[in-house]
Amino acid sequence: MTSFSRTERSRTQILDAADLAFRERGFSGVSMEEIARRAGLTRKTVYNLFPSKEDIALRLIARVEADDRPYRTRMAAGEDVRTLLEIILTDSAAWCLANPSLARLALAPAERPRPAPPADRPSFQGLICDVMALGQAQGVVRRDEDPGFLALVLLGIYGQAMLSALSAGVMAPEEIRRLIRIVIEGIGAPAAP
């Protein structure tokens, strides 16, 4: 069994405390002092490990993005990409609706997305890029475009739809299926029956 260093335990306590606080009071309603109190640590310790509340929020988002094993297992099994996208985006929508203040930060990042996902860490963009590549191999996603670019297109549409859903507080699974269908089929007129 691997033991965590005191620093790693403190980081985990801070992230867990912040996660709960952000869910209860929203990102703007929580201070670093409150996070420190909830974590049972001093404010100085929190600032030594995280320079800002924004950094804590970004680490929480990265922690969620890193947990992509269930989807990667399904990808390795060759699951239909449309079904897989529906599951991934439905799960993402549920997380966004349960964490609206963090979701807004994740959906509207300060840094402009690049066609290539970050190479140094797991990311939602990387997962979707890999799903697009699988879709190309399955013949359900166009092969004449880079999967990274296709992932950005899908995530751009999904992100805007999710930001709208956050205002309404709901995004039903059938809306996600509709988005996937439109993105995969394109905006052209459907083929004649």
- Structural class, judged by helices and strands? mainly alpha
Name of the CATH architecture of the largest domain: Orthogonal Bundle
Q: From the alpha-carbon coordinates, what is the Rg to the nearest angstrom?
A: 19 Å
- What profile does the largest beta sheet have? none
CATH class of the largest domain: Mainly Alpha
Overall body shape: elongated
Percent range for helical residues? 55-70%
Distance between the termini: 60 Å
Number of strands: 0
β-strand percent reads under 5%
How does this model look, in words?
- It is a single chain.
- The chain is an all-alpha fold and 193 residues long.
- The chain has 2 domains: 6-61, Orthogonal Bundle (Arc Repressor Mutant, subunit A), CATH 1.10.10.60; 67-185, Tetracycline Repressor, domain 2.
- Helix content is 68%, strand content 0%.
- α2 crosses α3 and α6 (81-98) packs across α7.
